[in-house]
């Protein structure tokens, strides 16, 4: 593990590499969200704008990306790791820990590894770790680097950054929303972002199957500890019956977390696989800000932010609910 550098030192070292190196590979975490995808696209475009050779790689299993992110300028993203990897600087964006790296071999094979992220529990797996938990999103850290790289973002780059910003701040509503987030939004709008277009792409055009899955989820809500713990458990059959795909689980937790009296909200969903291998992905939210849910996620083998975290488990529904209840009581 690299020594923990002050953020401004790390920022300077990352800028040096981005300016001086010529060939890059840009990657993010598995099941990339708006910030991960927006950051991959924005950084790749920005570096190309200053003449760099950039390969942006997503795992084939993560393609195509969820419907709401298809407006991003993804045409240059590939699923193949370049064979000259040992001559490239790898930039990991929005990737909190080494277990969440879906593209195998990049970290081990690249010449240098830059780790640019805002997760407070980032495992600092890079040669240089620019980890700034005060940033609302990784896109915000990248946006802040652009002037020093001599990049004036074009409309597509600005849109990619904006999607990271809007999704990670919960449309400028979560606690990570700051003066800087709004200044960034103003700047990106000046670069040609149309907020209403971005809103429509991200939050409208909802497929009927997604609403049907939400209906199923709301029927399944369990409230434990007098409602302090609110859990939804979705089975494989729920996806088969409604026709929803996994990515359409996103957003369900935002309904659950708003219920009065909730301290921790959880949405668990069974991952695809065989009947004797049932793994469940659990997303957690701190609903009233009194508990650091990343501590619960770490106890379950995962990680994340104090307000939003997750893990994957082989526990069945009742065992999982008991585990979450115990954890909630232990961390309250
Ligand atoms: Mn993020």
TrEMBL record:
Residue ranges of every copy of the DHHA1 domain listed in the record: 241-324
Keyword Cytoplasm assigned: no
Domain DDH, chain residue ranges per copy: 24-164
A Pfam short name: DHH
EC number, as in UniProt: 3.1.3.7
GO molecular function, one term: 3'(2'),5'-bisphosphate nucleotidase activity
Keywords in alphabetical order: Hydrolase
Domain of life, source organism: Bacteria
Keyword Nucleus found: no
InterPro entries membership: DDH_dom (IPR001667), DHH_sf (IPR038763), DHHA1_dom (IPR003156), Oligoribo/pAp-PDE_c-di-AMP_PDE (IPR051319)
Name under which the protein is recorded: Bifunctional oligoribonuclease/PAP phosphatase NrnA
Species for this entry: Patulibacter brassicae
